[in-house]
Amino acid sequence: CLALLGGPPAALAAIFALTAGFAVGLLSPVHGLLAASTYEDERLGTLSGVQQFVASIAGAAGPWLSGVLVDSTGGYLLPMTVPLAALVCAILVITYRGQTALEAQPATDYANP
Q1: Which of 46, 83, 102, 104 lies in the 20 to 30 Å Cα band around 34?
Q2: CA-to-CA distance for 50 and 60, rounded, in angstroms?
Q3: How far apart are CA 54 and CA 112, in angstroms?
Q4: Distance between alpha carbon 81 and the CA centroid of its chain, in Å?
């Protein structure tokens, strides 16, 4: 997307690095707060660990699987379509599954113990 801006490559790389850095930096504390308000206190560590394990495996397998798909199909259409389809499915599940875990139980206020 940044290449469409037509700027110098170094400036585009800096914009990407800042944007990605802010996004990842914001995700980490939000993930912990969301998990703490969603899971039961006695299972929080276990469930967070399992979630991080699955995310790590997916993060490691994603580039490899994309490479296999590119090699087998000869193009990038399928490797780009699979994550997009997964994203659309996740959005649909989150949108249409009804009451969320956060709505089902009162949130614990960890900021004011």
Answers
A1: 83
A2: 15
A3: 31
A4: 17
* Global pTM value: 0.52
Instruction: Please determine, for residue 80, whether its predicted confidence score (pLDDT) is greater than 70.
Output: yes
Strand, coil or helix: 110: coil
Q: Tokens standing for 48?
A: 């967070």
Q: Give me 93's structure tokens.
A: 């599940």
Mean pLDDT, residues 42-53 taken together? 84
Q: Encoding tokens for residue 109? A: 């206020």
Alpha helices for the chain (secondary structure H): 9-38, 44-73, 77-96, 101-104
Helix axes 9-38, 44-73, angle to 10 degrees: 140
